[in-house]
Task: structure prediction
Amino acid sequence: MKPLTIVSSRTPAGPLLEVAGDLDHSNAQQLRRAAAGAVLSAGLLLVVDLGELGFCDSSGITALIAVRNHVVAAGAGLILVAVPETLRRLLSLTGLDQVFDLRDSHRLQAY
Result:
């Protein structure tokens, strides 16, 4: 099991959270806290980079939904980038691929 790390920085569009390691029931609160600590306002985007995510269980997916709800309540937008294929499949199976804005990379595309 890989420990979860979340690195916070800024992009021109808004805050960026780079998530690495395993996101599960033991640490999903870390993602919620990191999102709650991001400075969000109407018109900004919270970008969550999942390119180094190793594993995500249902608690991790629930945390992503909570992050989305927090972002929407702030009037901001949410983009998930570099989503691993296994997580993309889960999001697709649950219909959450229609809820989240999934992108390949935050470095290659304009928002």
The first helix runs from residue 28 to 37. The chain has a mean pLDDT of 93.
